Amino acid sequence: MTLKSTIELANGVAMPTFGLGVWQMKDGEEVSNAVKWAIEAGYISIDTAAEYGNESGVGKGIKESGINREDLFVTTKVRSEMQGYESTLQAYEDSLERLGLDYVDLYLVHWPVEGKTKDTWRALEKLYKDKKVRAIGVCNFHVHHFEELLKDAEIVPMVNQIELHPLLSQEPIREYCNEHNIVVEAYSPLGSGKILNHPVIQEIAEKYNKTVAQVLLRWDIQIGVVTIPKSTHKERIYENADIYDFELTQEDMDNINALNKNERVGGNPENLPI
């Protein structure tokens, strides 16, 4: 595997298994620089969201990088406040305008919103059928969210982007997604920095002469999920991607798997203040 390795979605689209996440990055120079550095380092996937408020900066970074649009995989998401059928169609056009792009590769429902997500999903299905997006999916879905959506959906979501790291390994939803040919994508793969001092992972990192972050991201790759670490620092962006010259042993994988506590650093889809 390499930084440009991909996984095939249910519709045959090739999605990169590694990318740059830009949550909490400031719009403007901070995010546009991070995007340019990532592309310079060889990343071909950029993940943003309307809710992050930095799509314009992401678009600027893409444009200034000089990369061919078709060589990049861009993801964005419809924010909860814009869910609903017509409002989602408009939200997509608004995102395209901010990004300065003609299409995005993957469009996601950012959070499940009771009473609205089915209409939102119908809008994503229309965007997909009209060939305005290459793939569609969801974020933060648990099994029951899928079961409810799929009562009426014509298209099964192709991706489920969820908080996932060793303290929250999400095995039940990963198993469900695998059974339904839904690719799992990990956000906050470093636990928003909260796992970087964990002694078990520090010991493993020393063994391979790698950073804790590199071990965590390598774990993602080996459990078969897409991962999108975030960093605004050029050297860290390069460093995060340097995970293809080693492989964790089964013992190390088991030791990392054993760290699960179902402990979140972000919001829980079951009790959102929406």
Percent range for β-strand residues: 15-25%
Number of strand segments:
10
Instruction: State the CATH class of one domain.
Output: Alpha Beta
> What's the N-to-C terminus distance?
40 Å
The CATH architecture assignment of one domain turns out to be: Alpha-Beta Barrel
Mean pLDDT level: 96
In N-to-C order, the SSE pattern is EEEHEHEHEHEHEHEHHEHH
Please outline the major beta sheet.
8 strands, parallel
Can you identify the CATH superfamily of one domain? Answer: NADP-dependent oxidoreductase domain
Q: Give the C-alpha Rg.
A: 18 Å
Described by its quaternary structure, the protein is single chain
Name the helicity range. 25-40%
CATH fold-level name of one domain? TIM Barrel
Protein structure class: alpha/beta
Poorly predicted segments: none
Strand order of the largest sheet: 3-4-5-6-7-8-9-10
State the shape: globular
Number of helices in the DSSP assignment: 10
Protein name: Aldo/keto reductase
Family: Belongs to the aldo/keto reductase family.
Keywords: NADP, Oxidoreductase
Organism: Desemzia incerta
